[in-house]
Amino acid sequence: MRQAKLSIIGVLIIALLAGCTPLRKPPPPFDPEHTWQKRQLALRKLGGWKLKGRLAIDAIQEAWTGTLRWVQKGDKFEILWISPLGQGSVELRGNPERVTLRVPKEAPITAESAEKLLGIRLGWSLPVSGLRYWLLGLPAPGLPVLSRSLDPFGRLHSLSQGGWQIRYLGYQSVKNYQLPGKVFLDNPKLRLRLVIDRWHLV
């Protein structure tokens, strides 16, 4: 009988203690937009980066594939695009004011933008000024954003800017960042398909 009373008292004490325990608040719902804003701030602070990947270019009547290497240090960039099977290479070095283009067996040529150089020499143009940001998964500053969509983790899924439609088909972890692993870019005259094999933050 005594044991039964002790058991009842024990149950009552546990119930009272449980009643005094504050209720835990449920975790706030995940907000992709809030995460996206924080992600933008972090990515824009990157001082420099390098990438190596595979780039396919599909123009109106021609197509090329090759390896892309890009080094960005502040406003300075070095881009090397190498075609397979010894078909040649294109090298761009410069900054927002002056860019030099080098191709094998030709004298270097210089202009105020990479887009102009490529258009004159090759007949097609990479959107270098925008790509610097698009490759990181960011809109380019100074250009209107016509539309954008986010994935459930607050990363860019698609972007319409500067006459280009950009789609992000995968991301990869690089240190504390989520950086694109596959980027598709389209405009009426050119299609770019880039698979990034390796990122290096500097």
TrEMBL record:
UniProt xrefs under SUPFAM superfamilies: Prokaryotic lipoproteins and lipoprotein localization factors (SSF89392)
Membrane topology, record value: Lipid-anchor
Location of this chain's protein in the cell: Cell outer membrane
Signal peptide: none
Presence of the UniProt keyword Transmembrane in the record: no
Principal localisation: membrane
Alphabetized Pfam families for the sequence: LolB
Gene Ontology CC terms, in alphabetical order: cell outer membrane
InterPro entries from the UniProt entry: LolA/LolB/LppX, OM_lipoprot_LolB
Keyword set, alphabetical order: Cell outer membrane, Chaperone, Lipoprotein, Membrane, Palmitate, Protein transport, Signal, Transport
GO biological process: lipoprotein localization to outer membrane; protein transport
Function summary: Plays a critical role in the incorporation of lipoproteins in the outer membrane after they are released by the LolA protein.
Family that this chain belongs to: Belongs to the LolB family.
Subunit text: Monomer.
NCBIfam families: lolB
This protein's name: Outer-membrane lipoprotein LolB
